[in-house]
Amino acid sequence: EPEVTQTPSHQVTQMGQEVILRCVPISNHLYFYWYRQILGQKVEFLVSFYNNEISEKSEIFDDQFSVERPDGSNFTLKIRSTKLEDSAMYFCASSEQGSQFFGPGTRLTVL
Amino acid sequence: GDSVTQMEGPVTLSEEAFLTINCTYTATGYPSLFWYVQYPGEGLQLLLKATKADDKGSNKGFEATYRKETTSFHLEKGSVQVSDSAVYFCALGSSASKIIFGSGTRLSIRP
Q: Tens digit of pLDDT for each residue in A46-95?
């Protein structure tokens, strides 16, 4: 069964450093998403992406964040200068048009 | 804006007990409703969904009915197992748009 994959599973970084989180969506899906879950809190929407552009973003998704689909398979989330409060689990999701399928997540720890 | 409210956890039950996790929503339009499950150390898995009023979603013995009149989507299971221990998220979304999650309910099942 096709699934969304994410790498790395755990990333530790120093405050102020740039990180890139990688996702491989399900191959025939057209819509891509990033969500995050701060430990013990609810899952929050960050951004959606369709047809090579952002279709919607939340207030959390400020200028420090960017997304890219650099080739036909990967979908990345970049955080330019990480802050302590960026520590969270980041989930990628993809959909054809209906249900979203989530990856296993990348746990980002900012020290 | 749209929102989801679900019962606070944790919920602790004995094996074979009946489970209900309450969920209510506020939405403009006619969203789809979802239950996602997050097992310890894993990502989000779609458990079941319903796309319109009076639809019943079901999977693995879990059921939830889309009740427009009470704006609810309560999760039920007749006989829980230890392996059902997880965090359960109620959520809503419209086609290809972001998913809005509830705060999650941690379920623990005692043998």
A: 999 999 999 999 999 999 999 999 887 899 999 999 999 999 999 999 99
Instruction: Tell me how far apart the alpha carbons of residues A68 and A88 are, in angstroms, rounded to a whole number.
Output: 20
Residues composing chain B: 111
Give the one of B32, B43, B51 whose C-beta lies nearest to A102's C-beta: B43
Contact B57, B64 (CB under 8 A): yes
Residue B84 region, left (φ>0) first, then alpha (ψ -120 to 50), else beta?
alpha
Q: Tell me how crowded residue A39 is: count the other CB atoms within 10 A of its CB.
A: 8
* Residue B82 near residue B109, CB atoms below 8 Å: yes
- Residue B52 tokens, joined: 């319109």
**Predicted confidence (pLDDT) per residue in B54-67, tens digit:** 999 999 999 999 99
Residues of B in contact with A48 (CB under 8 A): 96-98
